[in-house]
Amino acid sequence: MKILVTGGTGYIGSHTVLSLQEAAHEVVVIDNLVNSSEESMRRVAELSGTAPEFHNVDLVNEAAVERVFAAAGVDAVIHFAGLKAVGESVREPLSYYYNNLVGTLNLVRAMERHDVRSIVFSSSATVYGEHNAVPYVEKMEIGANNPYGRTKEQIEDILSDIGTADDRWNIALLRYFNPVGTHPSGRIGEDPQGIPNNLVPFIAQVAVGRREKLMVLGGDYDTPDGTCLRDYIHVVDLAEGHVAALNHVADHAGVFRWNLGSGKGSSVLEVLRSFEKAVGRPIPHEITARRAGDLPAFWADATSALADLGWSTTKTVDQMCEDHWRWQENNPNGYAG
Ligand code: WQD
């Protein structure tokens, strides 16, 4: 099929573009490059042998989105594009609501106009909020506790309402947990602009000498080693999960929700130790105060993705750290070289 991937130059997007090409799909990418680099497309082309068609387009520009749909003739959409930093969303909620919601509405309206009604949406485990018991299950009542998470929740509701009103729509809502790692080639990876919010890219930048030390944000949680537990999954496993979801919605009308996670939690210190094993030396770190809003522990119940899609994670935290380090060591400044 010919697949439009919004946000396809980003970390998860670029890995998914590669997985789609490896599954013999033709790919068209829309991205405004606000938090990514077009270099990722050249690297993907190097790995797959085929350059994805790329349009430097912002989804909030409705006319530009229409021009891509009018010319491309796509069969389905995977929608990653959106602002995604929790802390930033608390400081700049209007920017998050405008970019994430208006961008999605422009995309879905263009799909409707062009009779494209299969979509895989990149949602987040953050929609489960603070009130749900662990492990998270798809049928639970969601309720995010930050503007970023609320945009994901509202987009889920928009797509779910569209699918309920019109049974020609095939919709997959994928709730990610904590994607880490990179393609084993070390040629595509995670390249956050500015100071990384997330744990593993920060550790990687300390290991390569760009940051002085890792601050372990809280060591007094009620967990085995006092640090938070999260469900880390390899980004290549995550990309394969998107291909599996796309194949499912290609011939199943309706609205589907799947957690993409490993089903187990790893602590901050366990991940740090694993990264030190990959690097072969200790990584400077200090246990400091908790970060506001962090939950002590959560992970996925991933049984429905296995049952419905035949998908489950395959890679270990050690493999995630080995791959992430290979990327960072070979690309100390990310795509900037
Ligand atoms: C993981 C653990 C931190 C940085 C976020 C979003 C979520 C999703 C994934 C988009 C926590 C600790 C972190 C650091 C640390 N993003 N940490 N030092 O918060 O689980 O999830 O990213 O969909 O929506 O909420 O991931 O990597 O930020 O933190 O100790 O420098 O690492 O306290 O316990 P998180 P994270």
Quote the CATH topology of the domain at 2-180 and 232-261: Rossmann fold
Instruction: Please state the structural category.
Output: alpha/beta
Q: Report low-confidence residues grouped into runs of 5 or more.
A: none
CATH class identity of the domain at 2-180 and 232-261: Alpha Beta
Question: Could you give me the name of the CATH homologous superfamily of the domain at 2-180 and 232-261?
Answer: NAD(P)-binding Rossmann-like Domain
Oligomer: single chain
Instruction: Give the number of helices.
Output: 11
Q: What's the count of strands?
A: 13
Residue share in helix? 40-55%
Distance between the amino and carboxyl termini: 34 Å
Rg (CA only) = 19 Å
- What string, H for helix and E for strand, traces the elements in order? EHEHEHEHHEHEEHEEEHEEHEHH
Mean model confidence by pLDDT: 97
